[in-house]
From TrEMBL:
Molecular function via GO: hydrolase activity, hydrolyzing O-glycosyl compounds
PANTHER family xref list: BETA-HEXOSAMINIDASE-RELATED, GLYCOSIDE HYDROLASE FAMILY 3 DOMAIN PROTEIN
Superkingdom of source: Bacteria
Domain Glycoside hydrolase family 3 N-terminal, first and last residues per copy: 34-325
Organism of origin: Nonomuraea zeae
Protein name per Swiss-Prot or TrEMBL: Glycoside hydrolase family 3 protein
Family: Belongs to the glycosyl hydrolase 3 family.
Amino acid sequence: MSQSDRGLRRLAAGTLLVAFQGTTAPEWVLRELEHGLGGVTLFGFNVADPGQVRDLTTALRGAGEAVISLDEEGGDVTRLAYHVGSPYPGNAALGAVDDVELTRRVYRAIASELAACGINLDMAPSADVNTEADNPVIGTRSFGSDPALVARHTVAAVQGLQSVQVAACVKHFPGHGATRVDSHLAVPVVDVGLDVLRARELVPFSAAIGAGAKSVMTAHVAVPAVTGDTPATLSSAALTGLLRGELGYDGVVITDALDMHAITKSVGLAGGAVLTLAAGSDLLCLGPLPTYDDVQAIIAEIVSAVREGRLPLERLEEAAARVAALRAWFGTSEQVTAEQNVVGLHAARRAVRLTGETEPLVEPLVIEVDTPPTIAVGDVPWGVGPWLPDAEIVRVEPAAADVPELLAKAANRSLVVVVKDAHRHRASQDLVSALVAVRPDATVIEMGLPVWRPDSAAYIATYGAARANAQAAVELLTA
């Protein structure tokens, strides 16, 4: 391979954030980092404990200058606490409290934990304005439905993360909040005019740019007024025209995971990589599915695209310069001590809401109504069991639940029903309604967005299903 070939391959590899299975770095990842690979994205399956993550990131950084990223939003979407649930409430809870200093403190605490583990880029916060209650992928990940509220908390989150040299990645541009389709599975459409987009979706992104956000993540969302039928990730009108031009952003643009169906089922992984680079992306998050063979094929396709004139060499050089500037901002990787997490539970306690009155618990039966996890959240444990050790916990599929049997089991006992996003699941609503119709003295705990509630029963809204949210709810229940 000639020197120019090696240089071009290095530029192509430098645009990729790869993933891998396991808690140690495979040889191919270390080898590619030595040859200019952009970095990695970690997932729950890469995490055992903070010490292990620190060892992993030390090995990665020893192989090359790496962007080491993950999705640590607090709340439902967590990677460091994937196996136990986050000690921090998510954005919906912080938006419900609406104390920007609290949001800044929570995100600073999250960042200090990440920095102590050697992670330098957090794919957070979600700046989506959640105007669609039935949104299957955002929901409690959003600060709320009001653009001004979302903007001020997005700024606070960016400031909190970046105060300890962890880069924020504000997502999902130009806005995923008005969608009813999960972009992991198809291409959602935000069919509004530019005036609505500017007054709603773009407000938090503009504020985050003004606050110095180091990176912005694209959405695999089509906005016909800007992108036509094309997802924003692949649209130069969205990334170069709107984000770079109109909003004046010159930081790093990172794609949402390219292994999502919105990309793979339309233009393919390697084709999508070339198109998003041409559109204006700088770092391509490949997601957890692509293998080393896929990575090699993507690099080869980027190289071919440059050689064939489908992708200007200057575009790769521009991306490399932006990523180099980001790495320079990271600075040295001195050991950071994680802040003690007291702010997470404090924030969850401030967010939780009780409507009605609860009775003292007597031999409580807790019925947890199972809710299928979204792909973004994954199979993170949730529920109130850890804080009610003396309770009997029964988890049921709502459509298959035997209501008379459950009511018989709850006879002469306190009944607590725990749901998540009941407004999105008719079977969950029907089950809760049937239970409280017979037991109006029950308490219902909603661990998603509190959009729907039964006609009777005490009602606790947590605005999220993180470990901190559950503890705060149980404290109210047992107060």
